[in-house]
Amino acid sequence: MRLPIPYLAAAYALILLAPSSLLADRNALPDDFPLPPITYGGAGGGTSRSDAMTLTHCPIILIPDGFRDHTDWTGSNPGNTTTTNGNVYATLLQRGFKPIEIWMIDLSPAGHYMSSIEEATDDLKLFMTAVMQYTGANRIQLVAHGSGGLLARLTLLKYNIAHWVAAEVYIDTPFQGDASKDAIARTLAGDPTAWALMPNSPLLHEIQAYGETPTYSSPRSDIPFRLPTLTIGPDIRTNGRFNSALRGAQNLTFPDYDHNALRCSPETVAAYADFLKRPALPLLPEHDRDADGFRGYQWGGPDFDDNNPHIYPGAPEILGDGIDQDCNGCDKADHGGREMELPIEDRDRTP
């Protein structure tokens, strides 16, 4: 049935009157966001960098499951949740987060597999640095669904960047693998993560540290630390273990919800929204002396040299110069190491 012209006009007027930030956040990134060139895209983050001055929580990056995009966080694929739309983005706004604090990354178009794990980890790392630079936040938070959690954990280990993160949430992530997956068929179909989901795969051993939250070392300290970690799972056992749980984490189970509902049901979102209330302060000019967009280390930020605008998280590394340009405690070398980077042992830890 076609609506009468007056009703159409009224509906159009309501769209024009709707806050532009809500419309833009749901479907796109801010126009002035420095999206890394190799990153597929995403949504969220408000509409202007000036909103960063209102920052109160460490920004959240929502990472979708494989074969999905950011629309999973805005209402698609709600599963068996009792809510009407399963809109995580809207729920986080209702629970006190601001648009500038909620970001969603697309690692591939919906319905397509990621092109490679290597490229996806690059994408996530650069997206993390772009969010920190855009918001001026000293750290970010990660919320990952399904196999997106494996990718998030691999990114932190691969680049030695756990010190950029304030907290992490993993939703139904198969840390012990999933024997029901047909790894060979899925790999041949173009899914590079399929082989990694097999129980006891080498990559799973690497990124889930045999079922525990790993111990990290900050590039500026020899004191080991563990990230505050929350897991959300359905209480399903795989090989005698809780598949989604990690020793050392806060593990919550919701047996009434399926894989998608664990991501977006009111009950589960409430649980991880409360966990993510990590405070952040707006970036002041005196906390960024070299004006590269990152808070200096002496102010609790990730920039290890606040007097050099060429040193900041995500900066290009120069081969073999003995300098840690991207603030992860490593220098680029022509032999070995993750991403051709090896730890700088005799580094100066003074700000």
Account of the 3D structure:
25% of the residues lie in helices and 14% in strands. With 351 residues, the protein is of the alpha/beta class. Strand 12 and strand 13 (341-343) form a beta hairpin. It contains 9 helices and 13 strands. The longest helix is centred in the middle third of the chain and has 19 residues, at 117-135. It has a 7-stranded mixed β-sheet with strand order 1-3-2-4-5-8-11, with helices on both faces. The chain has a two-stranded antiparallel ribbon with strand order 6-7. It has helices at residues 5-17, 20-27, 88-94, 117-135, 147-159, 183-188, 202-208, 259-264, 266-275; strands at 41-44, 60-63, 102-106, 140-145, 165-171, 216-217, 224-225, 229-233, 237-238, 241-242, 250-253, 330-332, 341-343. It has 2 domains: 30-275, Rossmann fold (3-Layer(aba) Sandwich), CATH 3.40.50; 295-351, no CATH class. The N and C termini lie far apart (67 Å). Helix 4 (117-135) packs across helix 5 (147-159) and helix 5 packs across helix 7.
Question: Strands, helices and their partners?
Answer:
Layout: H1 5-17, H2 20-27, E1 41-44, E2 60-63, H3 88-94, E3 102-106, H4 117-135, E4 140-145, H5 147-159, E5 165-171, H6 183-188, H7 202-208, E6 216-217, E7 224-225, E8 229-233, E9 237-238, E10 241-242, E11 250-253, H8 259-264, H9 266-275, E12 330-332, E13 341-343
Parallel strand pairs: 2-3, 2-4, 4-5, 5-8, 8-11
Antiparallel strand pairs: 1-3, 6-7, 9-10, 12-13
